[in-house]
Amino acid sequence: MSTWANLGLQDSASPLMEQLIFFHDHALLILVMITVLVGYLMFMLFFNSYINRFLLHGQLIEMIWTILPAIILLFIALPSLRLLYLLDEINEPSVTLKSIGHQWYWSYEYSDFNNIEFDSYMIPTNELATDGFRLLDVDNRVVLPMNSQIRILVTAADVIHSWTIPALGVKVDGTPGRLNQTNFFINRPGLFYGQCSEMCGANHSFMPIVIESVPVNYFIKWISNNMNS
Ligand code: CUA
């Protein structure tokens, strides 16, 4: 999760988020190089006193400074396109989770396992444990196995919500009447926090998501405990 003075991206917990961070750094590097170059040229213009009375056109330099930026843009566009298709790739998921956005809470269904379903509400500040995270913890967490391909189906019951977990690089809109799909692979155990990120009404800020990433045998234990009840 994000903590104080953390201005950058969160540490990744999935291979796709790792790739997103690499792409972010790559794009930022190009951005800085362009800003420095253009900034330098603009600054130096103030001190330029050269005049050429016969200069009307310069075909060559205009060719260069048109094509060069286009080539630079390709260095951003191609990795971006690669990532776009990589994010959409689904590779034989072993668990499917369905998350439904409501005003203002999430509900979850594990359709593979005897249709386990539950609601997940934010814990109000006055009921929060001393080690709890305010506005971020929920009463029922989403338990998922680590080191497994997980498919997420997102929809909503009333207005548009968005199921967003920064550490996993997941952000999918839940739209009434539609079923959106995404997938991820959590590569370490831990708690991963997320929040709704579509403006869904008065309590939009109060429908967080908590994923509890556990080893596969713990997940099986959790799932079988919940199937009996
Ligand atoms: Cu649901 Cu914002």
From TrEMBL:
UniProt topology in membrane: Multi-pass membrane protein
SUPFAM superfamilies cross-referenced by the UniProt entry: Cupredoxins, Cytochrome c oxidase subunit II-like, transmembrane region
Domain spans labelled Cytochrome oxidase subunit II copper A binding: 92-225
Cellular component terms per the entry's GO annotation: mitochondrial inner membrane
Cofactors (names): Cu cation
Gene3D superfamilies documented for this protein: 1.10.287.90, Cupredoxins - blue copper proteins
Superkingdom in the source lineage: Eukaryota
One Gene Ontology MF term: cytochrome-c oxidase activity
Manner of cofactor binding, per the entry note: Binds a copper A center.
Assigned keywords, A-Z: Copper, Electron transport, Magnesium, Membrane, Metal-binding, Mitochondrion, Mitochondrion inner membrane, Respiratory chain, Translocase, Transmembrane, Transmembrane helix, Transport
GO BP: ATP synthesis coupled electron transport
All residue ranges annotated as the Cytochrome oxidase subunit II transmembrane region profile domain in the record: 1-91
Keyword Transferase: no
InterPro entries: CcO_II, CcO_II-like_C, CcO_II_C, Copper_CuA, Cupredoxin, Cyt_c_oxidase_su2, Cyt_c_oxidase_su2_TM_dom, Cyt_c_oxidase_su2_TM_sf
Transmembrane regions: 27-51, 63-87
A Pfam family annotated for this UniProt entry: COX2_TM
Catalysed conversion reaction: 4 Fe(II)-[cytochrome c] + O2 + 8 H(+)(in) = 4 Fe(III)-[cytochrome c] + 2 H2O + 4 H(+)(out)
Function: Component of the cytochrome c oxidase, the last enzyme in the mitochondrial electron transport chain which drives oxidative phosphorylation. The respiratory chain contains 3 multisubunit complexes succinate dehydrogenase (complex II, CII), ubiquinol-cytochrome c oxidoreductase (cytochrome b-c1 complex, complex III, CIII) and cytochrome c oxidase (complex IV, CIV), that cooperate to transfer electrons derived from NADH and succinate to molecular oxygen, creating an electrochemical gradient over the inner membrane that drives transmembrane transport and the ATP synthase.
Database matches in PANTHER family: CYTOCHROME C OXIDASE SUBUNIT 2, CYTOCHROME C OXIDASE, SUBUNIT II
Similarity comment: Belongs to the cytochrome c oxidase subunit 2 family.
Protein name: Cytochrome c oxidase subunit 2
Gene of this entry: COII
